[in-house]
Specification:
This protein has 171 residues and is of the alpha+beta class. Helix content is 32%, strand content 26%. The strands form two sheets. It has a four-stranded antiparallel beta sheet with strand order 1-2-3-4, with helices on one face. A four-stranded mixed beta sheet has the order 5-7-8-6.
Length: 171
């Protein structure tokens, strides 16, 4: 699946500018593996149940890996600047106004296990995708929010941090 991590002029509603947009697709090599596993399962059903036509299990199970891999790839990370509003970091359905961001930094792949391990605050908001090595850490400065920081997977942390900086977040 192609990865889009480039600025686009206007968001889907036409209400503002999208400074950064990335969909966290699963790796391409997962697709043939998923179809292979599905074909093996269909072959098992074909050999085990002689009452159904041989092609039926393959036909019925073909959409399953497509649905599973698309579902795993559903997370989108965006920095949006709506018209007449505060810019937001949007991760899936979660929205964070950039004016509550105290600082943000990239988390390299070598430090990811530490950030997600013992050092992880249980109150943190985490959107982790195991197939993506890098993350960003967004520290919040909002007394009304019990969440101390966000940890978000991204393939292009430098571009995401630059978009946050352009949108007015402090680093």
């Amino acid at each position: 699946m192609p990865e889009r991590s480039s600025p686009t002029p206007v968001d889907a509603d036409g209400t503002g500018a999208v400074r950064y947009s990335e969909r966290l697709w699963v790796p391409l090599w997962w697709w043939p593996i998923a179809f292979g596993i599905t074909a093996l399962l269909a072959a098992e059903i074909d050999m085990g149940v002689r009452a159904v036509p041989g092609w039926l299990p393959y036909l019925l199970l073909a959409p399953v890996p497509i649905w599973v891999l698309m579902w795993l790839s559903r997370l989108r990370v965006e920095v949006v600047i709506p018209r007449d509003a505060v810019a937001e970091l949007m991760v899936g359905r979660a929205h964070l106004p950039v004016d509550v961001i105290a600082r943000a930094a990239g988390v390299p792949g070598s430090a990811k296990s530490a950030a997600l391990g013992r050092q992880l605050d249980p109150a943190a908001y985490v959107q982790h995708r195991a197939w993506i090595r890098q993350m960003i850490l967004v520290v919040l400065d909002d007394p009304d929010d019990p969440t101390p920081y966000w940890l978000v997977s991204t393939r292009r942390p430098d571009r995401l941090l630059a978009a946050l900086n352009d949108a007015g977040a402090a680093h």
